[in-house]
């Protein structure tokens, strides 16, 4: 039972906002509907055009990989109240947030030793 690492990079997420934002990215590893592990980027203060270039690794046994999904959320940090969701995508084999996210997931599964890079448009909640 060898572990399988998933690496996700976020590059140049553009935000079309009028107000100042403090964006960061949160990634949840999920098994079915259950959230298992979370990773976050640093908060980029006072920027509308952040560039996220972070790598996240999750150790998942190969036989469990088809049950997993990655919930990638861009959040706006709020020092006083609740952090606000700017947009998200779900990378999953069956219930991805769109056809391109599902295809991306399938490409990552079928080519486990290869970096699969693809742009995705954030979807509002």
TrEMBL record:
Signal peptide annotation: none
Superkingdom, taxonomy of origin: Eukaryota
Example GO BP: vesicle fusion
Gene Ontology CC entries for this record: axon; exocytic vesicle; plasma membrane; presynapse
One GO MF term attached to the UniProt entry: calcium-dependent phospholipid binding
A family per Pfam: C2
Name of the protein in its database record: Uncharacterized protein
């Amino acid at each position: 039972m060898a572990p399988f690492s998933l690496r996700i990079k976020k590059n140049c997420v553009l935000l079309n906002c009028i107000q100042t934002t403090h964006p960061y990215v949160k990634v949840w590893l999920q098994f079915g509907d259950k959230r298992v592990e979370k990773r976050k980027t640093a908060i980029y203060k006072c920027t509308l055009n952040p560039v996220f270039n972070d790598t996240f690794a999750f150790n998942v046994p190969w036989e469990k990989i088809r049950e997993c999904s990655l919930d990638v959320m861009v959040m706006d940090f709020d020092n006083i109240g609740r952090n606000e969701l700017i947009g998200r995508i779900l990378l999953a084999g069956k219930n991805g947030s769109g056809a391109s996210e599902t295809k991306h997931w399938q490409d990552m599964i079928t080519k486990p030793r290869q970096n699969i890079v693809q742009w995705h448009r954030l979807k509002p909640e």
